[in-house]
TrEMBL record:
Domain of life: Bacteria
This protein's name: DUF2264 domain-containing protein
Domain (DUF2264) ranges: 20-383
Pfam families: DUF2264
């Protein structure tokens, strides 16, 4: 099963061929898959489960979770159905009238005694475990009101007053209930805003408290800190739900807060193209990667504002490209629905709050289908933004100080590679692999950690006598100076930095990858230090090449379509390669290139600076010598050429020169 684009319009949409009708076709395609599992008009849109180890409900979860999974199936599939009904109200999927199906089940969901009843807040609370205060039902109520607003004339307005009151009373209970102190406050705000629009009295003090909290999370450059993290929840939750709230409530009732939300959205879209590659593909990063193309939704939501600043042609191009990235792949679908994975099912990226129906949240960008045919989002010619001016031997850097994200568009291979910071987790936290890496790449999704030695796109530290390797659990941001990004990574950080091993990171973007000059600060020895490149899918034939030049070593992995290289200059003893199974989100088997460094003496003036490059190339043509070995000259201030003190000087073959200086980093670290 995969989506096939029929009658593409490459005149208006030269990059994707996608227009408004194609988006509606995509809605029908997704709903056909969902409804292939619906046995009758009385059945809810539930997905056959294939993953049980992590996702809910399971033997460890509270009984109310059974109802939450059912609610996710109803409300999130409705996020796909509602925009379709807005445009094609007579749509049938198989034998089912979408209008009649959702009209029936939404009312049944809030009506005690029906087979589709989802439980009241008090009933959910009675089934909850100690410490459970916030419930998935709040999120799903927000999805319901979005869909009801979108399909107002087709669904909401057809309910009688008594039925509306029944639905409103159910929504009000969760709107006024406890919510998580992060993006979830927006769920309550949207529910309250919908009820206010419908004439139901709300507590405006509660609304204002939620709204001020949302503004307080703002960090700059269009990004909000979600709880203690920066991740895609800022774009796909804050920057989607907040503009909708503006349109429904904020502009009328809270003009100052609304003005700040509008400003923050416009600030985001100024540089948000930074996170998408030449094909407008999404990079796997952070939690909830199963929401996939939802990352593109802020480009649509921006047009819900009174004064949007997004470029409509770029907005549609990125939304369309991100959608096609996933729905045109057969491995994304299992039993007619998107898997719990990025492409194929991949349990290492699944969180315990997800169920089989959770991926339907990928429908967030479908809010664009509520714009009329003559809206600029649909009439503007597609634009590929900065990629249209990108030369093959060039690189474009986007700096976002607020969240500590620096993204690079690589002209030589069309990829985006972004480096993140301002992340902190307890040692061995399951979230570390999602957030703390040397960088994230659109062509090479991150691999799971096994803590056995080298890990993909990360340093790992193994002390003699220990069985498990350490990986950094805090990444601090120190800013960009003279095109060099500085960060600090600590291993096994808990309460303070005293005695903890760390690495001062400094990286330089290249047209085909990233050059690193990282200084180790590891007080405890003996140890082995590893630095992994990206995991390379190896289900098909992969060739291996070894090359060297003036003491620098390189190893290249090459498939029929793509190549990856690790080149090391100083600080490493060897480049090695290992095969792994079950850690890559694309393939069952993968190969990992990694550099190694070993230290035996407790104290001794030995090489401190690890200089390396991770490079990639599309197609079958081999790397040229200048591509694979980009450094012309490398020198250190000290006579031993170990890099223990003073700056590192690097001259590239293209004539650019860099001086890397780690001094005063300690006074500029940010979390």
């Amino acid at each position: 099963m995969k989506f096939e684009l029929r009658n593409p319009d490459y005149t208006l949409s030269p990059y994707t061929g996608m227009g408004r009708q194609h988006w509606l076709d995509a809605c029908e395609f997704l709903l056909k898959g969902i409804f292939s599992n619906v046995a009758s008009m009385d059945s809810l849109p539930l997905s056959p489960r294939t993953e049980y180890a992590v996702s809910y409900p399971n033997e460890k979860t509270s009984p109310w979770k059974e109802y939450a999974a059912r609610f996710e199936g109803l409300s999130r599939s409705f996020l796909i159905a509602a925009p379709l009904l807005f445009n094609r109200p007579e749509t049938k999927i198989g034998e089912y009238s979408l209008t009649e199906y959702y009209r029936k089940h939404i009312l049944s969901a809030v009506t005690k005694g029906t087979a589709s009843y989802m439980l009241s807040l008090k009933e959910v609370q009675s089934m909850s475990a100690p410490g459970e205060r916030a419930f998935q039902h709040t999120c799903e109520c927000a999805s319901l009101v979005i869909g009801l607003e979108q399909s107002r004339n087709i669904l909401w307005d057809t309910y009688c007053q008594q039925e509306k009151d029944c639905i409103a009373a159910y929504l009000m209970e969760f709107a006024n209930g406890y919510t998580e102190p992060h993006n979830w406050r927006l769920f309550n705000m949207l529910i309250l805003a919908f009820l206010h629009k419908e004439g139901y009295p709300i507590d405006e003090s509660i609304m204002r408290d939620h709204a001020q909290a949302i503004l307080s999370y703002y960090a700059g450059d269009g990004w909000y800190r979600d709880g203690h993290r920066f991740d895609y929840y800022s774009p796909w939750a804050f920057q989607v739900y907040a503009p909708l709230w503006n349109a429904w409530y904020g502009y009328q009732k809270e003009p100052y807060i609304a003005s700040q939300i509008e400003k923050n959205s416009n600030c985001l879209v100024e540089r948000y193209e930074a996170l998408f590659d030449k094909n407008a593909n999404v990079t796997l990063w952070g939690r909830s990667g199963i929401y996939r193309n939802a990352v593109s939704a802020p480009f649509a939501a921006n047009f819900a504002l009174n004064n949007p600043k997004a470029h409509p042609g770029l907005a549609r191009r990125i939304n369309s490209g991100a959608l096609l990235q996933f729905i045109t792949r057969e491995d994304v679908f299992q039993n007619g629905i998107p898997t719990l994975g990025f492409y194929k099912e991949f349990s290492p990226m699944v969180q315990e709050y997800s169920c089989a129906e959770s991926p339907f949240w990928m429908a967030n960008p479908f809010i664009c289908l509520c714009f009329p045919d003559n809206h600029p989002f649909w009439t503007a010619a597609e634009s590929n933004g900065s990629w249209e001016e990108m030369k093959e031997n060039a690189n474009k850097t986007f700096i976002m100080e607020g969240p500590g994200i620096v993204a690079d568009h690589h002209g030589a291979n069309g990829s985006v590679e972004f480096r993140t910071a301002k992340a902190l987790f307890k040692p061995e936290d399951e979230y570390i692999p999602y957030y703390i890496r040397l960088s994230f790449h659109s062509h090479f999704p991150w691999e799971a950690f096994d803590y056995k030695g080298a890990e993909a796109m990360q340093y790992s530290l193994l002390y003699d006598g220990e069985e498990k390797a350490l990986v950094p659990n805090i990444m601090l941001y120190a800013g960009v100076r003279e095109k060099v990004l500085y960060r600090m990574a600590y291993f096994d950080f808990q309460y303070n930095f005293q005695g903890k091993s760390s690495i001062q990171l400094a990286d330089i973007p290249l047209p085909n990858g990233m050059l690193r000059a990282d200084k180790t600060r590891i007080p405890h020895k003996p140890y082995r230090l590893f630095m992994g490149a990206y995991g390379f899918p190896a289900d098909d034939t992969v060739s291996i090449q070894k090359r060297s030049l003036n003491g620098a070593q390189s190893m290249v992995l090459k498939s029929d379509t793509r190549q990856l290289a690790l080149t090391v200059y100083s600080g490493f003893d060897t480049i090695e390669l290992k095969e792994r199974t079950g850690v890559n989100p694309i393939s069952a088997k993968s190969l990992l290139l990694y550099g190694t460094s070993k230290r035996e003496k407790l104290y001794g003036y030995e090489p401190y600076v690890m200089v390396s490059a991770v490079l990639s190339k599309e197609g079958g043509e081999d790397f040229t010598e200048s591509e694979l070995f980009p450094i012309r000259s490398l020198s250190f201030r000290d006579s031993e050429q170990c890099g223990g003190c003073g700056p590192v000087r690097i001259e590239l073959r293209d004539g650019q020169s860099y001086e890397i200086n780690y001094e005063e980093m300690e006074g500029n670290l940010m979390i």
